[in-house]
């Protein structure tokens, strides 16, 4: 079972476009032809089972190389083009990588030496041979397709092993609950080295929809222009994207996007104040809250938009084909409103961590993925995310979830973002610090006003002892906030 033969459509016409844009539009016909040529060439030169690094921003080059590596029976490792030298060297050595796919413009920035580097000029020479697509390369469903490296509590990243079956299962589920069709056009600001971004590529390729690549989200005008010019039906973002669109952009809330059918949000909890604000500004656009992990290929749960009023703050229930439970420390299902850990089972759950048997055994138990995320469940079975296990702050022995405090602070007018972290305290053990980004035009937002608002809605021990104002949201290359939960 080859996931690329599943993803690439067969019934295509020469003129049907997959990647829209004036810089480098790409048709389905050209994509299928070039992927086939590169896959067969790779298979002839290297065989199968090798690990190849792909170091590139979102582009046609990335898409063709990414799909061809997996179709050839080899394993793709997509990485952030801005990855640190030590991390890149670690991954190269651990995966024993000899061949890297890196665009020419990034050659001089790559400080790690590879035996071979194939850039867009090399790829162009190969795909000119036009090898027929009928050259299928088949293998077992659980064959390793990709390794997605994630940052965690360890010094070096962990490699999440994703199979061809994992990709097929998650893609099928997402298409079903989002009701995607060939009429859908997605504005892609999420990088493809991130599993959420890859899920956009997979799903829209499968339904023969279209994507628009935008690697410059901070230029909000270009995103707004794309949504209008290409009549985008979908937008996917992490919390920071929606916070910036709603409270930094002057035009997003006031501009009409008649084609924008839905937006999806994952990659961390977006506080309900922002969700309510979006729905008020865009009542005709469906807002779909989702939850997932790289270890689950991408997606684990979603909240149907028609449930948003009744279940605001919930991450919903398991997507089609995924079973979710919230359990206590003994593995027993918790009662409503108790706190437990989310565990998951389905064909989208990873094979394990690459060359890390210990972490694999700690995370995969009896066929269940232990996510490390704490949550509660209401009487109707809807799940409400509380925090990561490692995020919980203990103030004088009392357990505090940073999300609860952040929710209160971001509801204050003029606040763009809030991050709660723990700092060492001789008396309490841990004290609470709030790092707040405010709209530049709001000069009235002071430390005293923040503490006053908190005291009206929070217990005394939950009020931040320290408050610091920052100039911008601290995010990584995927747009996700950089966690600094225990800063000591």
TrEMBL record:
| Signal sequence range | none
AMP-dependent synthetase/ligase domain segment(s): 21-354
What the entry lists under Pfam families is as follows:
AMP-binding, AMP-binding_C
GO molecular function: any one?
Answer: CoA-ligase activity
Q: Which Gene3D superfamilies match?
A: 3.30.300.30, N-terminal domain of ligase-like (3.40.50.12780)
Instruction: Say which domain of life the source belongs to.
Output: Bacteria
Q: Where is the AMP-binding enzyme C-terminal domain?
A: 404-480
Name-wise, this protein is AMP-binding protein
Q: What is the lineage of its organism?
A: Bacteria, Pseudomonadati, Bacteroidota, Bacteroidia, Marinilabiliales
């Amino acid at each position: 079972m080859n996931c690329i033969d599943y993803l690439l459509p067969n019934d295509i016409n020469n003129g049907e476009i997959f990647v829209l844009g004036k810089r480098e539009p790409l048709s389905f016909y050209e994509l299928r032809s070039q992927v086939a040529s590169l896959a067969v060439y790779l298979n002839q030169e290297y065989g199968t089972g090798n690990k190849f690094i792909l170091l590139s921003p979102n582009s046609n080059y990335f898409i063709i190389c990414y799909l061809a590596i997996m179709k050839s029976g080899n394993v793709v490792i997509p990485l952030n083009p801005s990855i640190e030298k030590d991390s890149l060297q670690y991954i190269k050595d651990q995966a024993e990588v000899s061949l890297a796919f890196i665009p020419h413009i990034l050659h001089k920035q790559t400080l790690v030496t590879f035996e071979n580097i194939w850039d867009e000029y090399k790829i162009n020479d190969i795909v000119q041979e036009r090898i027929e697509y009928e050259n299928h390369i088949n293998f077992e469903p659980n064959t390793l397709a990709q390794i997605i490296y994630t940052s965690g509590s360890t010094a070096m990243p962990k490699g999440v092993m994703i199979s061809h079956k994992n990709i097929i299962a998650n893609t099928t589920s997402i298409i079903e609950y989002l009701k995607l069709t060939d009429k859908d056009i997605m504005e892609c600001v999420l990088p493809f080295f991130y599993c959420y971004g890859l899920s956009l590529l997979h799903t829209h390729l499968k339904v023969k929809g279209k994507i628009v690549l935008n690697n410059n989200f901070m230029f909000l005008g270009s995103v707004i222009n794309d949504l209008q010019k290409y009549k985008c039906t979908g937008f996917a973002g992490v919390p920071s994207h929606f916070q910036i669109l709603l409270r930094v952009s002057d035009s997003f809330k006031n501009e009409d996007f008649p084609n924008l059918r839905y937006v999806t949000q994952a990659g961390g909890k977006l506080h309900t104040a922002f969700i309510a604000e979006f729905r008020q500004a865009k009542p005709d656009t469906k807002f779909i809250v989702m939850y997932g992990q790289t270890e689950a290929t991408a997606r684990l749960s979603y909240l149907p938009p028609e449930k948003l009023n009744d279940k605001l703050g919930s991450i919903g229930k398991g997507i089609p084909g995924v079973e979710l439970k919230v359990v206590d420390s003994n593995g027993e299902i918790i009662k409503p409103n108790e706190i437990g850990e989310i565990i998951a089972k389905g064909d989208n759950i990873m094979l394990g961590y690459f060359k890390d048997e210990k972490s694999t055994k700690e995370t995969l138990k009896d066929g269940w993925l232990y996510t490390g995320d704490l949550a509660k469940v209401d009487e109707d079975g809807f799940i409400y995310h509380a925090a990561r296990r490692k995020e919980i702050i203990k103030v004088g022995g009392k357990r505090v979830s940073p999300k609860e405090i952040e929710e209160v602070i971001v509801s204050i007018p003029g606040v763009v973002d809030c991050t709660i972290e723990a700092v060492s305290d001789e008396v309490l053990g841990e004290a609470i610090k709030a790092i707040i980004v405010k709209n530049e035009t709001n000069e009235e937002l002071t430390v005293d006003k923040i503490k006053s608002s908190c005291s009206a809605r929070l217990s005394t021990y939950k009020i931040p002892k320290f408050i610091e104002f920052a100039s911008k949201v601290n995010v990584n290359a995927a747009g996700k906030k950089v966690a600094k939960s225990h800063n000591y």
